[in-house]
Amino acid sequence: MKILRKLYDWTLNKANHPKAPWFLSFISFIESSFFPIPPDIILIPMIIANRFKAWWYALICTASSVIGGIAGYCIGSFFYSTIGIMILKYYSLGDQFTNFESLYNENGIWIVLGAGFTPFPFKFITIASGFFHLNIYLFIIVALIGRGSRFYLIAFLLRIFGNWIKNFIDKYFNLLAILFFILLIGSFIFLKYL
Fold first, then answer.
1. Across all residues in the chain, what is the average pLDDT?
2. Contact 17/45 with Cβ under 8 angstroms?
3. Is it the case that residue 146 has pLDDT exceeding 80?
4. Average pLDDT over residues 158-169
5. What is the mean predicted confidence (pLDDT) over 70-86?
6. What's the CA gap between 129 and 108, in Å, rounded?
7. Is the Cβ–Cβ distance between 33 and 72 less than 8 Å?
8. How many domains, the chain?
9. Spatial distance between the Cα atoms of 55 and 172, rounded to a whole number of angstroms
10. Which residues contact 30 (CB under 8 A, 6 or more apart)?
């Protein structure tokens, strides 16, 4: 927990650095295609440090995440047999991917929307969208809605309740970090047994 606490404090201190939005953009992009940590872990401290930029940070997160999702889509569509399989095997999700096909073919749009809004691993869905050939334009629209809803909701709540949320995070940081990792690992376990 000390490492996470240091990362949180470091992010708060660096949030006003001129390159902070680029870092947020980079994390948002790679999380949508292969990186395991969601951008919320960077977005939340940045908004807490500067609530007046909440909408700007949400826009950066949304746009970068959707562009990263398009990269994940391309991995699934064009490079599944090389890069896609490596990513899924890294997360031990290779077997679940094939079991996921019928569910995805029936509910692809809702799955993209749900994964965009929840802590569910978005990279799995972006690769699946490309592999199962979900309409790219539909994918982009639904990803924008899902990811935008998530990041703008975070921005809205932090902008309105920023001081209270900051105090809450400071007080219950260890518990929140544990909860975050339970949700993250739980979503991978859910996928594993899908």
1. 79
2. no
3. yes
4. 77
5. 85
6. 7
7. yes
8. 1
9. 26
10. 68
Whole-prediction pTM: 0.76
Q: How far is CA 108 from CA 3, 7, 112, in A?
A: 37, 35, 6
pLDDT recorded at residue 188: 57
CA distance 155 to 44: 8
Q: What are the b/e assignments for 27-49, b being 16+ CB within 10 Å?
A: bbbbbbbbbeebbbbbbbbbbbb
Q: Which domain holds residue 116?
A: 2-192
**Spatial separation of the C-alpha atoms in residues 78 and 59, rounded to whole Å:** 28
The CA distance from 173 to 166, in Å, is 10
CA 38 to chain CA centroid, nearest Å: 4
∠ CA 41-43-49 to the nearest 5 degrees?
A: 110
Q: Is the pLDDT higher at 169 or at 137?
A: 137
C-alpha closest to that of 43 among 142, 155, 168: 155
In this prediction, residue 20 has a pLDDT band, given cuts at 50, 70 and 90, of confident
pLDDT at 194 over 70: no
- Write the DSSP assignment of 102-161 as a string of letters: HHHHHHHHHHHHHHHHSSS-HHHHHHHHHHTT--HHHHHHHHHHHHHHHHHHHHHHHHHH
